Amino acid sequence: MECTVSWMGTDGMAFSAETGSGHRLMMDGPPDAGGQNSAARPMELILAGTGGCSAFDVVVILQRAKQAVSGCDVKLVAERAAVEPKVFTKINLHFTVTGKDLERSKVERAVKLSHEKYCSATSMLVKTAEITYTIDIASE
């Protein structure tokens, strides 16, 4: 896996990233740090990637369990250390899984497996952060 990050110029703190799979995304900082608030912060992207990684796992696991899943949203709320490096110290992932006749035990198992076995992002972040999760199930 690879990624190239390039500073967009001397008049701000915007960066462009091109991923190894050929996708491009932007990052920027807040005005008080020299940015223009034109894109997500790098740490926000880490949080978003964590949610995407875990949601991906949950959907795949539920599909393999023959569950009629039609939606999976994850709201992440994180706390960071007060001093540098301002690593994540707490992260809660709140899953809202939608589908027809979903079995609670299978949804709970899918989230647990992602959390404890499959999600590479949470596996890395658990080194500095207490990671918790909560689950809501919504019917179609």
From TrEMBL:
Please name the source species: Polynucleobacter antarcticus
The protein depicted here goes by the name OsmC family protein
What Pfam families is this protein classified in? Answer: OsmC (PF02566)
**Domain of life of the native organism:** Bacteria
- Lineage, broadest ranks: Bacteria, Pseudomonadati, Pseudomonadota, Betaproteobacteria, Burkholderiales
Q: Which Gene3D superfamilies match?
A: 2.20.25.10, 3.30.300.20
